[in-house]
Each structure stands twice: as C-alpha cells, then as structure tokens.
Design a protein that fits this description.
It is a single chain. By secondary structure, the protein is mostly helical. The chain is 54% helix and 4% strand. It folds into three domains: 3-89, no CATH class; 102-177 and 278-313, Orthogonal Bundle (Cytochrome Bc1 Complex, Chain D, domain 2), CATH 1.10.760.10; 180-277, Orthogonal Bundle (Cytochrome Bc1 Complex, Chain D, domain 2). Strands 1-2 form a two-stranded antiparallel ribbon. The protein has a two-stranded antiparallel sheet with strand order 3-4. A hairpin with a 3-residue loop joins strand 1 (43-44) and strand 2. The protein is elongated. The protein starts with a helix and ends in a 5-residue tail after the last helix.
C-alpha cells in the first residue's frame, strides 16, 4: 500500500470515529426549550404513551467505552493504513506459527516411518491407514475416494501405470509431479495421409489391443499402421507398449485415460492432451509422500508380511 492510500485510510477511520462520537454526544444531550419526555402527543389505546427520553447514562458511557476500545484495538493490532500495530501482530505470522506447531506434531507422528521402504510401509496396517487418510485429504479430489480416477484422471487401483508402477517411481510422481503432453497431430497426419488420416490411425490403434488380428483385409487399419509408424512410434513404440519415461500410455491394453470413443480418440490425436499431476513435496514432505505412495502401491500389490525380507526388497510384478 502506498503512503497516499495509507493516509487516506487513516483519515477515513479518524473521520468515522469522530463522527460517531459527535453524533452520540449531539443526540444524547437535552437543550433548553425541548419538550418534556412525555409531551410527544403520541397515544395509543388511551393509556399507552410514547415518551421521548434520552438513553440511560450507563448506556451512553458504554458506547464511549466501545469507541475507546476500538481506538485501542487499532493501535494495538494495526489497521491504520500501513501501521503494523504496537504488538506487531499479523494473521500471516499467526498462521505460520500455528502451522509450524502443527507440522512439529505431524513430524512426531510420522517420525517412525521416515525413510522406510514403500513395500514395508504397505505391509504395515497402521502406515497404510495413515497413507489412506493422507490420500483422502490430498488426492481424492482428482482420483476419487476409491482411487479409481475419472476421465482425464488415472485409475490408481489397477496395474496400469503410465509413468511406471515401481515403488520409487510412484514416490517420485507424488513428490515431483508429472506433466504429460500429447502433441497436436491432426494437421501433420492430414498433411501426410489426407483428410481421413486420423480415422486410419484410430482404426490401427484399436487393433493393437487385439493381438494376432490380421491387417491384410483391413484397409483402414493397414493404412493407419503406416501413419502410426511414421508419427506415433517415437513415443508409443513399435509395438504400442508406450514409454514410462515419457508418460506415453500403453495402447495395447483396454484402458483409455480420456475415453475410448472415436470422438475422444479423434480429439486426442487432433488437438492433443496436456495432463499435469502437481508436485506434492512441499505440501506433504518426504515422509507423508512416502506413506501415500505406499497406500497407492498397495492398491495393486498385495503387501508381503511386515518385517519379512521380501517386504523390504520386493518389486511389483508388471
């Protein structure tokens, strides 16, 4: 706030306070010539009379005390422009202090799980319950309370992982986030294969989930394969298995992040997709991120008994 605005706020507050005090003083005093309190000429039902009496002195003094309290409050806590107040209090500092205290309590709660291997945490019911609670508070907004996702948000309860399903890969996803980009290929494909090029590619992509299907008598799919091999193979691979380093999905399964309809596939190819998983390292910290990663990993991996050698060293079957 500039000095000009600061003085403007101070002047406005001062005028309001002085105006209220003057109005209270002016309306509370009686002047010579004022009619008697009972001389209002307002009567109802013959025996009900309206009086015009001043407020009791204790009530008026209460208003003055409230004004004095307001002035003291402004000087103590601030509110006069850029003046911070004698106490130097601010809601931001109070929030940071309370946050630090809560974080200390949380750190003590989670200390037992610091650095623990994710399979080991997944095998511990208490740790898994903590991870589920963190998931419900942080991740369920996008992935759903059951972690089964929605259109555009991955299902975390199956065994399909666009960025890899190994424990440390899941932890990396939670900590650092992911950004998946499917470029716009509509104009490129049309320029290479004509107006129906996108439909040719869609026809071929659908055959990838049907191993052994012959393309010999399928003009659309066979034409689409040539276009796929020239454009799509760089990310999704020759066999369509995708690339977890790039987040390129496997096209040979029956899972479609944005839907499997022809309209949805056409939208994906023509206009591309841009998916962002936010980084949660700063929000959760390493231990809580590890716990939620363990919970997510456990959804598609049966945890080994806690304390066993396999619990510390197991890798998921993918």
């Amino acid at each position: 706030m500039s000095a000009t605005w600061s003085w403007y706020v101070i002047a406005l507050l001062a005028l309001n306070i002085l105006g209220i005090a003057w109005l209270l003083w002016w309306t509370a005093r009686r002047r010579p010539g004022d009619p008697k309190p009972e001389d209002t000429s307002h009567y109802w039902d013959e025996d009900i009379t309206e009086y015009n009496k001043p407020m009791p002195r204790w009530w008026i003094n209460g208003f003055y005390l409230a004004i004095a309290f307001g002035i003291g409050y402004l000087f103590w806590y601030g509110g006069l422009g850029t003046y911070q107040g004698y106490s130097q209090w601010s809601s931001a500092r109070e929030h940071e202090r309370d946050k630090a205290a809560r974080n200390a309590t949380l750190a003590e709660t989670f200390r037992a799980y610091d650095g623990a291997p994710i399979p080991q945490l997944a095998a511990d019911p208490a740790a898994r319950a903590l991870g589920q609670s963190i998931f419900a508070n942080t991740c369920a907004t996008c992935h759903g309370s059951s972690a089964q996702g929605a259109i555009g948000y991955p299902n975390l309860a199956d065994d399909i992982w666009h960025w890899g399903g190994e424990p440390e890969r899941i932890l990396q996803t939670v900590m650092d986030g992911r950004e998946g980009v499917m470029p716009e290929w509509g104009k490129v494909l049309t320029g290479i294969g004509g107006d129906n090029a996108v439909d040719y590619v869609i026809a071929y992509v659908r055959t990838l989930a049907a191993p052994g299907k012959s393309l010999q008598n399928d003009y659309l799919a066979s034409t689409g394969k040539k276009l796929y091999d020239g454009v799509c193979v760089a990310c999704h691979g020759v066999d369509g298995k995708g690339n977890t380093e790039l987040g390129a999905p496997d096209l040979t399964d029956d899972y479609w992040l944005h839907g499997s309809s022809t309209a949805s596939l056409r939208e994906t190819i023509v206009n591309g997709r841009h998916g962002v998983m936010p980084a949660h390292a700063e929000l959760l910290g390493e231990t809580r991120a590890r716990l939620v990663a363990a919970y997510v990993w456990s959804l598609s991996n049966r945890p080994a008994p806690a304390g066993s050698a396999s619990a510390a060293n197991s890798e998921p079957a993918r």
